[in-house]
Design a protein that fits this description.
By secondary structure, the protein is α/β, with parallel strands linked by helices. The chain contains 5 helices and 5 strands, in the order H-E-H-E-E-H-E-H-E-H.
Length: 137
């Protein structure tokens, strides 16, 4: 299996890329993985920005219907949509000037990975920041 997130890239995104994380697919559904991961990111000092068609406030942060609607810079785009939709989100992340893209466990789009890296944007795929971040301590 290809490693789409070497340790150095994982560490850089989690510690050096910036603390504003847009979480695509995040809603108030506490049973969804996105909700738990967003809580962990908050615990580690990240500002989470919910991105979901409902644009609801989640974990105290106002949501947006799309990445393009966020009126401030985003450092990392964390993608919780299925692989068939993830490539489009990665392209949107590059378009809005995100510094990194993170595809969650099970989200894989090799073409999107290549396009994102070719655009000069760091990317991790098929990993979970909530699993990786405690390992940095």
């Amino acid at each position: 299996m290809t490693n789409y997130g070497d340790e150095a890239t994982v560490r850089e995104i989690l510690t050096g890329t910036g603390d504003t994380w847009a979480v695509v697919g995040l809603s108030n559904n506490t049973a969804r993985a996105a909700y738990g991961v967003a809580r962990v990111l908050q615990k580690y000092g990240k500002r989470i920005v919910p991105v979901h068609p409902k644009a609801e406030t989640v974990l105290g942060e106002p949501g947006y219907a799309s990445l393009a609607e966020i009126p401030f810079p985003v450092d990392v785009v964390d993608v919780f949509v299925n692989s068939a939709l993830a490539g489009e989100v990665a392209d949107q992340a590059v378009a809005v000037g995100a510094r990194a893209v993170w595809f969650q466990l099970g989200v894989v789009d090799e073409a999107a990975y290549e396009r994102t890296r070719a655009a000069g944007v760091s990317m991790v795929m098929d990993k979970c920041p909530a699993i990786e971040i405690p390992l940095l301590d």
